[in-house]
């Protein structure tokens, strides 16, 4: 049953990806932009322009360009997406897949830590504010949710840099590193295994890199946690309140179950919807963490996509969108499976 | 026994004594609510006590408070709840926990909501058992299987692994009973435990509770709104009104001479409804040509993603004469609603004939049938759901006139006034929206809409099930008046034998999509023949203490559950095989057919037609 569901979902995901790539392909070409001029400069000779246009394949009709891109009835001697080839960046001439696999893990690492941390913080906070509505924990989360949600994350990012880097440094206290990348300039990232720098450095036995990277990741992750935890806490609190007042918890109490068991009953029921929300936020942050990436010069996929858009790097934009869409679809699928394992009422 | 119990001075040996209990629900924007105020109760071992009261009078909160529990955010304001002389409200958490679920068991309303939706019922039963007994999880699990077997669940090894949503409400109720009884409590609190159950299942369950109570000398506090249950099972009746006990008498005294206003009112209502039914109905010439004939009607529903089908209606044949009210009675899954829908082509029959005034309805195209609709109407169970929430009464009633007549605007308006008058709605109601009216008025609007196009025939699909007893009596009277003044025939679908008894000329008894008995009201109600009809009538609890079910020598009853009407679940021969107390080995493989008896009725049981029963 589960296998059939997964296969079905993967097939649907494939269709969605095809749809997304076609839409993105044409939308980019609707932009009032001239990538050739951007590439060769405004004062280039006509031949140079002509040559550039041909080398980018832009002299073909849009339909033919799409076929070239996909790799069916292609008239250029380059493979297409069908062969798992996303094309070459017009700016760096590097294969898109290379670039994406370099930048994507950086973002994934940051938001994964942020969401795991957010969930770990949100769970007890949400539970305790649900068990004592109006209590200290409840008031704290209310104020926090209001406060954190009231300003955009880049503003919090700048504020955090100001406080934890600049102000603390001025005061001569231990402080966060300058927001200038993932590592100190003198250190070099270890060769990629998973792409997650903390994990790679541990695997390669470089504890110095590990601690340095952790130090650098601290502020961007904290910024995201700060902004993102509010809604998760609220969700858990809301669910817990509903569960605590439910008939089955009342019944469990009337049957004399020990408090530990009752807490387990409640948590079991309140978890599933909170996890859904977390995954949705994850999907959103994949492309939505750009401001935080930029502030801390992390150099993730968000920053890369912005760069590609600004330089009209069509293949790079297409590739990024496709890969981000793919990752989100996989995350949603994984989440649905986990959700179904948690809640027996969901059938495939 | 009754005298003994009523001796209130005999405080010795009380199992439960609550005094002066007050429960407060703090509200944020309005004054606090006191659901229970200075509540006193005392219960003895072996006693079966009924606690009655109107909705919202605090009876559920009161029952819960006997466990020392309130639903959040409620709090105990004062009082003591003494179990065996020890006050639950003064004990520490651990001590009171050891009493809950062990010495005092609880069965709640909405059994499916009282079970955790994401845990197997076996785990839930084991958890309760392990909370009070030092056993390994494996032993607790096998104990759970045993308990399920004990409360009459078929195939307990499979059911113990089920989740709440996979159980019927009858089965979920049994799981709760299994949980409540697993540590053999001395006091069982049952809060409307049978609401939502079919009558035969209700009887099984209450019998079981009664027997457990008498055999183990444990006490039962039964919270209910049903006078029938109280009359048939309880030793003593407590009436609760606005958070307090206002009457405490033994069951016979209560029915003979109620003291409190509320008790008098509900008993009076009950009597009025009974009298309304005794108004002589216009008689029907049973020799006349039938208005409607249904021959061998079959309706099956395919199940998505599976080869099996649901047999909703299996070979139903019956006739209806002009001016007659024919009752279709049955429990859930009996196919009564499907028959009503097939007759009106709201569902397309799988096979069979539907003949109305000598014309086949089932072969007409839907377009052709559209013209017949003015003559064949329906009234649904939930009046609010079946009226457009944004239409006024006038708009609702104008629609059938627009569709089926060529009246001028003015004629339509006067017809609407006439209709309102017919169903007893004030003219001021013309511009009212459905939700602004009471349920009774909504149902009157629904009836007015049905009669607007002057139909000869109306399907009444549980028209009174969503109404209070008082409104039910009024609607029944209205329907009878309309039938005799306008000559309308009814197909009256209901699971409620009391209303059927009041209004119908003849009764069709259905079980699992098959007709098991057809006869006049007197034949079926006074002397049911088919074993299912017998059990159904015996299980129906009439609010009358002169023939209490618990005092009968033989309690006609059915075993087990109604099987689900899916192809492979259906019995080979007689559909009642396995549940019937009169079954023989032959019944297992012998298909049953309706046979005409000497007194003119039809019965689908070979033993009855051979005169063996």
Give an overview of the whole structure:
The complex is a heterodimer of chains A (348) and B (613). Helices cover 72% and strands 0% of the residues of chain A. With 348 residues, chain A is mainly α. Chain A has 2 domains: 2-83, no CATH class; 96-342, MetI-like (MetI-like fold, Orthogonal Bundle), CATH 1.10.3720. Chain A starts with a helix and ends in a 6-residue tail after the last helix. The mean pLDDT of chain A is 87. Chain B is an alpha/beta fold. Among the domains of chain B are: 1-99 and 201-259, P-loop containing nucleotide triphosphate hydrolases (Rossmann fold); 104-184. Helix content of chain B is 35%, strand content 22%. The interface between A and B is medium-sized, with 25 and 33 residues.
Give me the CATH fold name of the largest domain in chain A: MetI-like fold
Give the name of the CATH architecture of the largest domain in chain A: Orthogonal Bundle
Low-confidence stretches of chain B: 1-11
Helix content of chain A: over 70%
In whole angstroms, the N-to-C terminal distance of chain A is 7 Å
Query: Tally the helices of chain B: what do you get?
Result: 22
**Mean pLDDT over the full residue set of chain A:** 87
How many individual β-strands of chain B? Answer: 22
CATH superfamily heading of the largest domain in chain A: MetI-like
SSE blueprint and pairings:
The complex is a heterodimer of chains A (348) and B (613).
Chain A: H1 2-30, H2 35-40, H3 46-56, H4 62-70, H5 96-131, H6 136-149, H7 153-170, H8 197-203, H9 207-244, H10 247-254, H11 259-288, H12 290-295, H13 301-310, H14 314-342
Helix pairs in contact in A: 1-14, 5-6, 5-9, 5-11, 5-14, 6-9, 7-9, 8-9, 9-11, 11-14, 13-14
Chain B: H1 2-6, E1 16-25, E2 33-43, E3 48-52, H2 59-65, E4 75-83, E5 86-87, H3 93-99, E6 104-107, H4 111-114, H5 121-132, H6 137-150, H7 156-159, H8 169-181, E7 187-191, H9 199-216, E8 219-224, H10 227-233, E9 236-241, E10 244-250, H11 251-256, H12 261-278, E11 290-302, E12 309-321, E13 325-329, H13 336-343, E14 351-356, E15 359-360, H14 366-372, E16 376-379, H15 393-404, H16 409-422, H17 439-451, E17 457-461, H18 469-486, E18 489-494, H19 497-503, E19 506-511, E20 514-520, H20 521-526, H21 531-539, E21 595-596, E22 602-603, H22 606-609
Parallel strand pairs in B: 3-8, 3-9, 6-7, 7-8, 13-18, 13-19, 16-17, 17-18
Antiparallel strand pairs in B: 1-2, 1-4, 4-5, 9-10, 11-12, 11-14, 14-15, 19-20, 20-22, 21-22
Helix pairs in contact in B: 5-6, 5-8, 6-8, 9-21, 12-18, 12-19, 15-16, 15-17, 17-18
């Amino acid at each position: 049953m589960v296998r059939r569901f997964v296969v079905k979902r993967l097939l649907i995901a494939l269709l969605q990806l095809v749809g997304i790539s076609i839409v993105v392909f044409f939308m980019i070409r609707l932009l009032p932009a001239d990538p050739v001029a951007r590439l060769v400069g405004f004062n280039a000779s006509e031949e140079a322009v002509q040559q550039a246009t041909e080398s980018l394949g832009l002299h073909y009709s849009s339909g033919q360009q799409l076929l070239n891109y996909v790799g069916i009835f292609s008239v250029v001697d380059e493979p297409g997406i069908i062969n798992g080839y996303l094309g070459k960046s017009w700016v760096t001439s590097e294969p898109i897949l290379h670039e994406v696999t370099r930048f994507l893990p950086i973002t994934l690492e940051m938001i994964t830590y942020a969401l795991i941390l957010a969930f770990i913080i949100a769970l007890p906070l949400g539970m305790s504010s649900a068990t004592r509505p109006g209590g200290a924990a409840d008031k704290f989360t209310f104020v926090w949710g209001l406060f954190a949600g009231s300003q955009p994350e880049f503003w919090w990012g700048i504020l955090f840099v100001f406080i934890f880097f600049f102000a603390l440094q001025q005061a001569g206290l231990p402080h966060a590193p300058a927001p200038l990348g993932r590592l100190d300039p003198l250190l070099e990232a270890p060769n990629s295994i998973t792409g997650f720098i903390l994990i790679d450095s541990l695997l390669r036995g470089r504890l110095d890199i590990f601690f340095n990277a952790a130090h650098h990741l601290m502020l961007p992750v904290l910024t995201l946690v700060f902004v993102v935890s509010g809604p998760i806490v609220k969700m858990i609190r809301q669910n817990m309140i509903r569960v605590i007042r439910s008939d089955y918890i009342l019944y469990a109490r009337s049957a004399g179950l020990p408090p530990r068991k009752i807490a387990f009953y409640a948590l079991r029921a309140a978890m599933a919807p909170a996890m859904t929300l977390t995954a949705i936020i994850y999907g959103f942050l994949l492309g939505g963490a750009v401001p935080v990436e930029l502030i801390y010069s992390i150099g993730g996929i968000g920053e890369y996509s912005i760069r590609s858009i600004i330089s009209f790097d069509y293949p790079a934009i297409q590739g990024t969108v496709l890969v981000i869409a793919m990752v989100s679809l996989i995350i949603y699928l994984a989440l649905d499976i986990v959700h179904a394992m948690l809640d027996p009422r969901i059938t495939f | 026994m009754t005298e003994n119990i009523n001796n209130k001075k005999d405080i010795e040996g009380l199992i439960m004594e609550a005094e002066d209990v007050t429960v407060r629900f703090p509200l944020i924007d309005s004054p606090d609510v006191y659901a229970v105020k200075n509540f006193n109760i005392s219960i003895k071992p072996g006693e079966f006590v009924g606690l009655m009261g109107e909705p919202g009078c605090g009876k559920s909160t009161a029952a819960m408070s006997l466990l020392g529990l309130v639903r959040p955010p409620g709090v105990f304001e004062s009082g003591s709840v003494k179990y065996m002389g020890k006050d639950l409200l003064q004990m520490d958490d651990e001590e009171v926990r050891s009493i809950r679920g062990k010495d005092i068991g609880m069965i709640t309303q909405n059994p499916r909501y009282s079970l955790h939706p994401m845990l197997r019922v076996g785990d839930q039963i084991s958890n309760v058992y392990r909370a009070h007994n030092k056993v390994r999880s494996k032993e607790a699990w096998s104990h759970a299987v045993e308990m399920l077997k004990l409360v009459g669940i078929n195939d307990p090894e499979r059911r113990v692994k089920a989740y709440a949503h996979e159980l019927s409400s009858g089965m979920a109720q049994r799981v709760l009973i299994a949980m409540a009884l697993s540590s053999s409590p001395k006091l069982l609190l049952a809060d409307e435990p049978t609401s939502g159950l079919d009558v035969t299942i209700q009887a099984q369950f209450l019998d079981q509770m009664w027997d457990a109570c008498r055999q183990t000398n444990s006490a039962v506090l039964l919270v209910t709104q049903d006078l029938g249950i109280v009359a048939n099972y309880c030793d003593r009746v407590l009436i609760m009104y606005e958070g307090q006990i206002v009457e405490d008498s033994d069951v016979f005294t209560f029915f003979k001479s109620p003291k409190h206003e509320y008790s008098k009112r509900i008993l009076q209502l009950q009597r009025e409804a009974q009298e309304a039914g005794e108004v002589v109905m216009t008689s029907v010439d049973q020799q006349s040509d039938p208005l409607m004939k249904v021959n061998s009607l079959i309706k099956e529903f395919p199940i998505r993603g599976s080869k099996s089908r649901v047999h909703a209606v299996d070979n139903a044949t019956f006739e209806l004469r002009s001016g007659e009210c024919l009752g279709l009675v049955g429990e859930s899954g009996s196919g009564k609603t499907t028959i009503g829908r097939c007759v009106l082509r709201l569902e397309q029959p799988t096979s069979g004939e539907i003949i109305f005034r000598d014309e086949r309805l089932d072969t007409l195209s839907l377009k052709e049938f559209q013209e017949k609709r003015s003559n064949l109407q329906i009234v649904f169970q939930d009046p609010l759901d079946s009226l457009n929430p944004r239409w006024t009464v006038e708009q609702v009633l104008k629609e059938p006139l627009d569709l089926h007549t060529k009246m001028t605007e003015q004629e339509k308006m006067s017809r609407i006034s006439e209709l309102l008058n017919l169903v007893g709605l004030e003219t001021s109601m013309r511009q009212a929206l459905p939700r602004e009216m009471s349920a009774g008025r909504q149902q009157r609007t629904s009836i007015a809409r049905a009669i607007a196009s002057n139909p000869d025939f109306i399907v009444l699909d549980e028209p009174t099930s969503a109404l209070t007893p008082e409104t039910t009596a009024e609607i029944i009277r209205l329907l009878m008046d309309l039938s005799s003044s306008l000559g309308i025939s009814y197909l009256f679908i209901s699971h409620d034998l009391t209303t059927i008894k009041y209004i119908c000329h003849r009764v069709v008894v259905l079980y699992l999509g098959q007709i098991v008995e057809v006869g006049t009201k007197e034949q079926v109600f006074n002397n049911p023949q088919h074993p299912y009809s017998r059990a159904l009538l015996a299980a129906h609890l009439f609010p009358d203490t002169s023939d209490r079910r618990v005092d009968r020598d033989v309690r006609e009853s059915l075993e087990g559950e109604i099987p689900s009407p899916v192809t492979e679940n259906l019995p080979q021969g007689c559909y009642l095989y396995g549940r019937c107390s009169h079954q023989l080995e032959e019944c297992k493989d012998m298909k049953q057919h309706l046979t005409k008896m000497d007194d003119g009725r039809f019965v689908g049981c070979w033993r009855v037609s051979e005169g063996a029963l």
